[in-house]
Sequence to fold (352 residues):
Amino acid sequence: MQRNVQQAYPLISRLKNLDFWSWCSSFIDLYLDCPFGCIYCNTQKRSEFRGLHFTHTLPEKKETIGLGLISDVYSMDEGHNTTVSEILEFLFKEDYSVHIMTKSSAIAHQVEILKKFAEKDRVRVTFTLLTLNESIARELEGSSPSPQERLNALEILRKEGVPAGISISPIIPCINDGTESLSCLIGEGKRNKASWILFTGFDTVSAFRNSHLWRKTAELHSDPVNLESHYRHLRKFVVGRLLREGLPLRIPRIPLDIYRRRYSTQIVSEHLFNISYLYELKENELKMLRYRRAAHEIESLQVSLKSIASSKKLGYIKGVNPEIEKVIEEILYTGGSTLHIKLYDSLKEECD
Fold:
């Protein structure tokens, strides 16, 4: 695979709002498409290397940069993986934080630079891992490294103190959704010291519909009521297992420097996003939307939230109603939220 440094594509893509799963709004992508060719993904296996002219488009504030969240930054070409090392060295030198999402075990070769990030709590790594079954993995994930290779890489990073976890998404009905299979997957994640385990549902794409595996799940997808019931059962099972294992349902956000003006804003928005997710798991859509909207509004503030609170003007922030205002005040002055604790405990009881 040849590098194509003449490509005019921007290396940095930026979202309008924060992606609260990865805690990133800026992403580095080295490929137009992902190199692994997973059949459930919208990207295709056509990897043209993007040019490395990225220094002028990095965000001015030293935020967390996502790598591999749209297309995997690692490939089967060792030369390109060396380029990832160069990018990581540059980002470390410039005081950026990183969140890397990958299916590649090659990341284990870069443990030394990742340790430097980890010493300053400026890195998160998430491995996508859908199944421990090698044959199913080959059918779903093309030329991706095997599940065991990814678990080995996870173990290496965790032994060196690098915060790393796994994403068991997507969970595909009738393919990788067996409770025994999911239980083993979560168990292996914990055995290898995963810092978190994430999961979501499944959106069908044309690539998957054209595969022979679609026949196994097509009937369930043709019945939205049964599909939702199926996912409700799976959600309860997975959440219950994660809570019993003491594994976080969310990735801890990389903190800004505590002396920066927006530190309080970041802490509050993280709590509100996490509360909104708990409401989502409890299927309270109205509360979920309200807290998520307020979190996005607070995340976009360019002034100190504490100064707004001291002026008694939290209610002027779009989406902040009296209930959410009280939650914000508690987070600002105690560093925590009793609502979050109550929702977490309630969810745990529901899933027992």
Notes: The chain has a mean pLDDT of 84. The radius of gyration is 21 Å. Strands lie at 12-19, 24-28, 64-67, 97-102, 123-128, 164-167, 197-198.
